[in-house]
Amino acid sequence: MIMEDVTGAQLIAEALKAQNVEYMFGIVGVPIIEVAMAAQASGIKYVGMRNEQAACYAASAVGYLTGRPGACLVVSGPGLIHALGGMANANMNCWPVIVIGGSSDQNQETTGAFQEFPQVEACRLYSKFSARPSSLDMIPAVVEKAVRTSMYGRPGAVYVDISGDMVNAKVNRSRVREVPCCPPPPVSMADDVAVTEALGVLKGAKRPLLIIGKGAAYGRAEGPLRELVERCGLPFLPTPMGKGVLPDNHPNCVSAARSRALLEADVVVLFGARLNWILHFGLPPRFDPHVKVIQVDLCPEEMGNNVRPAAALLGDIGAVVKQLLHHIRTDGWKYPADTKWWTTLKQKMAANTKMTKALALKVTSPMTYYQVFHHISQLLPQDCVIVSEGANTMDIGRTMLHNHHPRHRLDAGTFGTMGVGLGFAIAAAAVQRSQGTGQRVVCVEGDSAFGFSGMEVETMCRYKLPVVILVINNNGIYSGVDAETWEVMGKMGELTTVAPPVSLLPDARYDEVMSAFGGRGFLVRTKEELVSALEISLSDWERPSLLNILIDPSSDRKQQEFPWLTRSNL
Ligand code: ADP
Ligand code: MG
């Protein structure tokens, strides 16, 4: 049989397709335009973005949402460097993503070639795997290894480099060994001895607490976890992206008493959540110094970080929870519903909910975070995907906007990255559209956070992705000043020397950025304007909308019991 010649671009595209990579986000240019075209020809959906960072955030969100990495396609040098932020973020979040970078021609290496940069080396710190195929016929094997590595073990970022001269070079297909699609990761279970130990510790608990992290969401462990919570009657607390694995309004969810639950629990079971800054390192003053920790994670190196666990269950969360359930179903163990612990938690939840409600129902002009989130929460469909970033916007929004489905919240994550929101929203909307589930993607952004990747509204308009962006605009980072004060400051002296570094332009018209590209833009100052604009936006499936919600620039979080990032008694 006579076989045809294929180009490097075709081989990359076909290899990605063979590995079930369905989405590619990128920005084309020399030398990778042909790769994007070949990807489309292979049936991969290509989304052209405006900045490689946002493209990489989008590709990694696809990895989290679908369990299969999205691809991010970038040009050499600066293109690749812009994508490093997205790779680092994906790696920190343990999300699979495959970055494909064009690079300068092999025979020009070290000569000062156009956009020359040591790309494979640069990516090593931001990824689990970074390589360049040594020849065209190796492309399918390298792409398979990269995709497999991104998903197996602890998921993360991988990089495949393709030199410019390889993109259009040809090889006869007969010389290329095809590599079949790698299956989903093999599932491992915990050691039986550790399972027995863990059950002993859990059953001995006076004040147990299950913590559900984004590892549980990624691991699709919602079914077994729900059975564990309900069968045993245990209180649970989701981490920010663990929200929705079980619904936030589940009777056993103790989010509204988060600080108290963490502080007083005597046994904490971690399901795919790390004892890093998000969980205050598992240490005093936020945790009991004698708390016993049961860790469930598929990464052995994670066991014992900051706190030595009383039991370490190494394995896939879904499988390990089934192991626990196997014993519990047999012996019928249940944590009693009438304990002092449940009373403490319920009282604290009632008190906190009352306080938040009072803040939400106050009427002021301009509005505060609490009022705005209250009105938004009344209108959002329960099954929407909520993307969120910003400081106060994300923190307050997390407590007031509820999730009811797993993997329906995407935020700044483990790395605390601002600028992820629009890329994540584009990815979620693309996935929603191809899965045809008809769920809404809502992007709740601080005005500062929006600025990092704001030009991606053009991407949303171009592909008619009906994302609803809510910019909670307080004229600054953390907080800003009002227009009058800004005016006075301008008269006091040169703004670069007198303007607070946290301030941004007062009442900036972010809504006009959206309408400039044909999306819907709304300027919102009152409750009535907010409700009306949100209703219109939620009923439009043809184009994106942006609500520029001007709030009180001095609006702040309610008084917190502990300062942020407390770490003492080490
Ligand atoms: P959160 O931010 O919600 O606390 P983290 O990202 O800190 O979550 O932790 C997620 C953890 O989940 C990581 O340590 C990762 O190794 C682990 N993980 C990811 N997928 C699985 C899985 N299928 N089974 C077990 N652990 C997992
Ligand atoms: Mg702000």
Put the structure in a nutshell.
It contains 22 helices and 19 strands. Helix content is 40%, strand content 16%.
For this entry, give a set of tags.
binds adenosine-5'-diphosphate; globular; 40% helix; alpha/beta; 19 strands; six-stranded parallel β-sheet; binds magnesium ion; 570 residues
Characterize the structure shown.
The chain has 570 residues and is of the alpha/beta class. The protein is 40% helix and 16% strand. The protein contains 22 helices and 19 strands. It has a 6-stranded parallel beta sheet with strand order 3-2-4-5-7-6, sandwiched between helices. Strands 15-14-16-17-19-18 form a 6-stranded parallel beta sheet, sandwiched between helices. Strands 10-9-11-12-13 form a 5-stranded parallel beta sheet, with helices on both faces. Strand 4, helix 4 (78-93) and strand 5 form a beta-alpha-beta unit. Helix 1 crosses helix 2, helix 10 (222-232) packs parallel to helix 12 (317-331) and helix 14 (369-379) packs across helix 15. The radius of gyration is 25 Å and the shape is globular. The protein starts with a strand and ends in a 20-residue tail after the last strand. Bound molecules: adenosine-5'-diphosphate and magnesium ion. Magnesium ion (MG) is lined by residues 446-448, 474, 476-477. Adenosine-5'-diphosphate is lined by residues 93-94, 154, 213-215, 218-219, 239, 241-242, 272-274, 276, 278, 297-299, 302, 316-317, 414.
